[in-house]
Amino acid sequence: MPYVNIKITREGGPEGKGPSAEEKTRLIAGVTELLQTVLDKDPATIFVVIDEVALENWGIGGLSVPEYRAQQ
Amino acid sequence: MPYVNIKITREGGPEGKGPSAEEKTRLIAGVTELLQTVLDKDPATIFVVIDEVALENWGIGGLSVPEYRAQQ
Amino acid sequence: MPYVNIKITREGGPEGKGPSAEEKTRLIAGVTELLQTVLDKDPATIFVVIDEVALENWGIGGLSVPEYRAQQ
Amino acid sequence: MPYVNIKITREGGPEGKGPSAEEKTRLIAGVTELLQTVLDKDPATIFVVIDEVALENWGIGGLSVPEYRAQQ
Amino acid sequence: MPYVNIKITREGGPEGKGPSAEEKTRLIAGVTELLQTVLDKDPATIFVVIDEVALENWGIGGLSVPEYRAQQ
Amino acid sequence: MPYVNIKITREGGPEGKGPSAEEKTRLIAGVTELLQTVLDKDPATIFVVIDEVALENWGIGGLSVPEYRAQQ
């Protein structure tokens, strides 16, 4: 009965506001299949929660993502 | 000094957009009382954080919640 | 399909090393019943995960728990 | 390669709707520097994610934050 | 720069004490590839953290996992 | 009333098994002071939880940390 939490920046997708419903569906299906394949987990008891995080709320290398990308 | 995180789908409630403030208050009070009763924790140092998650961001059984319910 | 994560310090219980299995069971049952009562959630799709955290890994008021209690 | 998650109530800041981008930047820079100083971690592999939580979704002392403050 | 947290019960694997290092490696590789394929994320900035949870610390259906399985 | 969760690999420190109690104390004090300075939060209601993660349970770039370092 795994629980998987995927945190991504809210960007990209059809409107630039985050992944489409179809992309989220592929993430959910893919992670579930992976846990079934590798660890023989029952898909019925696999939860996946996707959190979309605003770019300015995500930091890497001591910078927010907008700053970080501006420096690349 | 427990920390409790409750993740639920954003639905139901008075406007269909998630639990009402009163329902959240009951969750907070109930969890706090439970920890006090079972583990003798001091309520003053119990934090509860409720996360409401969009239906399409929650997966079960390899499907997003909207797909999952459509199949039931 | 809620997911609840309860973080507590690893202490107390029958051997001073954290809650007993019976206490954990009461936490799980209590939180599940609360979500059923307040939000009408189906218990079959409620997950509860309890994390026990070493005292020195928990901070409050700028101090680790052992320091914090020594000052009270 | 640390991962730091900072959860705060969504309030304050320039419009009363949460910290400004500049305040978030200071949090990200400060936490990153702290991990570099204390544990000699490489900033390039330090992630910081800030979650802003609605006041009514945060509980302390068995009350939601709005109730809690009204009682102080 | 996604962050993925996989929580599983600590069981199975070569010694019955949880997944082998090789299984964990497959989980990490699989999730990373999935995020690269679906969302075009750069693998260099994908973190995966696997948490193994004691059976008695995991609840489903209002029961701890050992109780739950005994009832099946 | 912020909640901060710091996840680090379990390594280094006086015995190579993770940070010392003194280093954890410095992390707790530093994060608390940062939130007080930047957001004017009351230290009395700041929680910090440090999670130490086994190297083989942490992935980056599609590899577990031991594999990743072997390739550098």
From TrEMBL, chains A, B, C, D, E, F:
Record: active site: 2 (proton acceptor)
Region described as Disordered: 1-22
GO terms for MF: isomerase activity
Residues in 4-oxalocrotonate tautomerase-like domain copies: 2-65
Keywords, ordered alphabetically: Isomerase
Top-level EC class as recorded in UniProt: isomerase
Entry keyword Ribonucleoprotein: no
Stored InterPro entries: 4-OT, 4-OT-like_dom, Tautomerase/MIF_sf
Comp. bias (Basic and acidic residues): 8-22
The keyword RNA-binding appears for this protein: no
Sequence similarity: Belongs to the 4-oxalocrotonate tautomerase family.
Designated name of the protein: Tautomerase
Organism: Aurantiacibacter xanthus
